[in-house]
Design brief:
three-stranded antiparallel β-sheet; 3 helices; alpha+beta; about 20% strand
Amino acid sequence: MVLELLIACGAAAWHSAEPVRADIIPVSVVNTTDAGDLADAGFIYGHLACWELQCELRFAAVCGSLSTWAAGGTAAQPTLEEAVKYVP
């Protein structure tokens, strides 16, 4: 599998030559510090929870997106409850 986090656009992965994509959620960006790290963490969380790839990517995109709505990097990270409500 190849994973590409496109923070401004979402996330994409290629598994068995089939692309899977997930969009970001629109937010008013204040600070992008650690957005990529939090997107990575979101993907890893979903993967370890054995979610479907589409949900893993969506969670990654959501975690990265929501982390930009306030200053402070990880201080702005969403809670699990805040992020999960955006995952189908």
